[in-house]
Amino acid sequence: MNFSTVRWGMIGAGDVTEVKSGPALYKTPHSELVAVMRRNGAKAADYAKRHGVPRWYDDAEALLHDPDVNAIYVATPPNTHAEYAIRAMEAGKPVYVEKPMAMNYAECRRMVEVSEATGQPLFVAYYRRRLPTFLKVKELLEAGAIGDLRFVNLSLYQAPKPHDVDGSGAWRTNPAVAGGGYFFDLGSHQLDLLDYFLGEIREVHSVVANQGAYYTSEDVLSASFRFASGVVGSATWCFTTGQAAETDRTELVGSLGRITYETFKPSPVVLETSVGIEKLPFEYPPHVHQPLVETVVQALRGEGTCPSTGISAARTSRVMDELVQPYYARTARS
Question: What CA–CA distance (Å, rounded) separates 243 from 157?
Answer without folding.
Answer: 9
